[in-house]
Amino acid sequence: MAARQLASALARPADAPPTSRGTAIAAFRRHLARIQQSVRDAFEAHELDGIGAAQQLAALTDGLLAALHDFTLQDALAEEIALAKRAAEAVRGVGAGGTPEGFTLSIVATGGYGRGTLAPFSDIDLLFLTDEEPEPAILSAVEFMLYFLWDLGLRVGHATRSASQCVAEAAADTTVRTTLLDARRIVGDAALFASFQARFILASVESGAGNFITDKQQERTLRHQRYGESPFLVEPNIKEGRGGLRDMQTLYWLCRYTLGTHTFPDLARAGAGRQALLTEQEAKRASRSWDFLWTVRFHLHYVAGRAEERLTFDMQPVVGARMGYTQHGRQVGVERFMRHYFLTAREVMRFTHILEPQVLRQALGVPATAPETDEALRRAGFMIADGAIMPQPDVSFDRDPIMMLRLLAAARDRKLPIHPLAMHLLIRWERRAASLRDNPEAMAILLELVCGERPVRKPRPDRSAELRRDEIIRNDPPRSGARWLHVLNETGLLGRLIPPWSRIVGQMQFDTYHVFTVDEHTIEAVRILGALEAGKLAEETPVANDLVEDLQSRRALYVATLLHDIAKGRGGDHSELGSEMALEICPALGLSAEETETVSWLVLHHLLLSQTAFRRDIDDPKTILDLADTIQSPERLRLLLILTVVDMRAVSSKVWNAWKATLLRELYARVAEVLAGGLATTERDVRVARGKEAAAILLEEEGLTPDEIEDFLRLGYGGYWLSFDPETHARHARMIRDSMQRNAALTVETQPLPARAVTEVTIYTADHAGLFSRIAGALAVAGASIVDARIHTMTNGMALDTFWVQDASEDTFDAPHRLARLSVLVEQALSGTIDLDEEIARSTVSPIGRRMRAIHVPPRVVIDNRASNAYTVIEVNGRDRPGLLHDVTAAMSQQGMQIASAHITTYGVRAVDVFYVKDLFGLKIGSERKLEELRASLVAVLTRAEDAIARDSAAPARKRSAV
């Protein structure tokens, strides 16, 4: 129908003048819009799947190009070509009925378009195939068509070459050879195209498959390095990322070049001189993966309105909903969709391990047993080929599945890589590993693989080393647990041996905090633990680095790391569920009753230290006592600290910083002191007295008089002396003395602390309601992010408030001009010379991008009167934004709350801020009515911000619909 409409629009009487270019462009634009819309309508109505839509769009584009070819040669440039033909006939002596040389042209589709597939906004790759020396008129025709296509708004990748040039370019450049593999004539001289094809095939056969295969493998390696080695990144590139379309295309190219096959089902059938390389089931899985990825790609292009290949957070829920993924139980639709994607990416990786070795064997022959294969290895049933281990031909994983794990054990012990053909067999027979769950030998091997070999401690890495920290950590030794966990996970063996593991493969959390899926995060945690044991993290985690040297429960720690998130995605508290599951899994792995209990306890409490350090006041004696009562054992405390560090560090290197390390280190020291039977946290008066004594000694050394020292010691209440070290007390004394001598109403002191990645801001001024909120607002305007705060009212009615702040990159806020501006802004905020709300709105304008808007952060306020004996603890959960702390604390001030300390934590776009507060009388808040009013006020603050983001997100949609 669309083609007929185009032909009708271009039709003209024989004696009419040629159709103008403007008229033709208008007709072609209407035609292009019709064919694109027809494919989109059929696809979105689920009449076409992804690959079907890609094929139909390619076929309809063929028709448009054929029509443009005819219009160019027969209408637009007809006179120019006719004149050129007559001139050529006169020069060359070709008769009226002949075909003059130099006037042949063939339009050829190449690349993905040549395979007959085209995405909505992808480039159209074209080869204009000409004679060896094309006439200027033909080159004019090519130029006319290209400009015409560009005027239609199409993106065209193009080349104009003769057959000889094509063959020469393909010989010199593997990328060109790849694009020409699927060259397909759309319109034009068929004989010219047939001649080119014959020459190209002959040249490819003569050049052999070895170099082509090597180049494509190297190209894939570089692409993975650029787009991410892991297929489980939470915002994957579906085309270029590992496990994406390009990986499948690479397999297709290898098979196409080496075997001459055109589709994956072809590989399930025997061909000339070869056996079937895939089973029917494997071929079907490959086709399903291919179609799923194409379907996702089509939706992604249509939603984005451009050639978008990355599944970003804002795209994931939309694409998932369009594909019919809805909420099932506690799992939302977007997480179900992304799990399907990640399982497909994993399937592509497995498919690569299955197919590629067989293609190599077909192209290069069966690998021979290497002479370094010793007798012991032969007796075990294995051999070395191409420097890698593989089973001997008479070994059957189907008949004897224990050999799969023995192969891995031999590879680990001998530090050998696994041969690709062995990986192929492991994946093909992984389901047989389920029969080994009750096999003590199999589970013992699994436990050894998970724990790895205790590494030799390395000296601290040179700071000048060119390798980045992550690259140092990821350089896994051959016997590391992470290396073998990757193999076990990719082959599917781990899910067969530990069934609950299969539930977390590809499982993601729809937030910006977690970088990996649950299974990949867990393997990363094991990797970090191995790096910690090897001494590679000595600088960033010194306490954990020292503790890990003397581990008494190494196996329990590794298994706890493996199982700490095993129950995620099941609903309920994953720590509690995982703890119960550990009681079943650990004995099966061969752990003792004591080790099993330790693993279960660690899984249950693996979030305890981080939640306490970042959300609770560790200067509150009850916080430390509660922790000590729960942990009870110094060994458990050591194990829990190490597990906490590797868990946090495995989320992302950006999550871990020096400030968090400091908080965990201080918390560990205080709990360890109690567990070791030292000074009890209940002996508060003794600790206060010792704090004063230490401060007095320092101040006396600095030359302060006894009266000045005594005046300072009378200023602080007990909580103040427990909150800082003697050096800080001495600094505060100097600051207060100078302020009193100058009779200053406000003193602001800043001190960068690079070792902690924070800057300490100390403010000494008259205490009054709303002071915290005003300071927080000033710091927000200055661009400083508060990570912790201590609020102390002194006995003279003055406030000594301390804030620890970072810059936008979570590092020390230390630029001199920014520190000077910070001090000025605090003074202006407290004097009332600036409108804080207006300044925050103006200076922190950073519209939340679509990616972040897609993450819903439901406002939540939790009030706890049991966490502290002296304070009411308020936990505020909401979307992080500039000025949030100012707005929240202003609401508290309006409700008559006095804030003693604040603890600020950010998880991606979610802020978790915890405040220790009292009422105006210095008491905990006991009135239920008052607590409810406070909760409602805080929820209202959080809701207003979330509603504003929702309105901003809806505005572009309304604008688009209006257009």
TrEMBL record:
SMART domains: HDc (SM00471)
The keyword Cytoplasm is assigned to this record: no
Cofactor: Mg(2+)
Keyword Amino-acid biosynthesis tagged: no
Chain residue ranges for the region called Uridylyltransferase: 1-376
UniProt xrefs under InterPro entries: ACT-like_dom_sf, ACT_dom, HD/PDEase_dom, HD_domain, NT_sf, PII_UdlTrfase/GS_AdlTrfase, Polymerase_NTP_transf_dom, UTase/UR
SUPFAM superfamilies: ACT-like (SSF55021), HD-domain/PDEase-like (SSF109604), Nucleotidyltransferase (SSF81301), Nucleotidyltransferase substrate binding subunit/domain (SSF81593)
Known EC number: 2.7.7.59, 3.1.4.-
Regulation: Uridylyltransferase (UTase) activity is inhibited by glutamine, while glutamine activates uridylyl-removing (UR) activity.
Keywords annotated in UniProt: Hydrolase, Magnesium, Multifunctional enzyme, Nucleotidyltransferase, Repeat, Transferase
GO terms assigned for molecular function: [protein-PII] uridylyltransferase activity
Domain ACT: 760-837, 873-954
Catalysis: reaction(s): [protein-PII]-uridylyl-L-tyrosine + H2O = [protein-PII]-L-tyrosine + UMP + H(+); [protein-PII]-L-tyrosine + UTP = [protein-PII]-uridylyl-L-tyrosine + diphosphate
Domain HD: from-to ranges: 518-634
Pfam families the record matches: GlnD_UR_UTase, HD, NTP_transf_2
NCBIfam families membership: PRK05092.1
Function per UniProt: Modifies, by uridylylation and deuridylylation, the PII regulatory proteins (GlnB and homologs), in response to the nitrogen status of the cell that GlnD senses through the glutamine level. Under low glutamine levels, catalyzes the conversion of the PII proteins and UTP to PII-UMP and PPi, while under higher glutamine levels, GlnD hydrolyzes PII-UMP to PII and UMP (deuridylylation). Thus, controls uridylylation state and activity of the PII proteins, and plays an important role in the regulation of nitrogen metabolism.
Record-stated family: Belongs to the GlnD family.
Domain notes: Has four distinct domains: an N-terminal nucleotidyltransferase (NT) domain responsible for UTase activity, a central HD domain that encodes UR activity, and two C-terminal ACT domains that seem to have a role in glutamine sensing.
Name the record gives this protein: Bifunctional uridylyltransferase/uridylyl-removing enzyme
Species of origin: Endosaccharibacter trunci
Gene: glnD
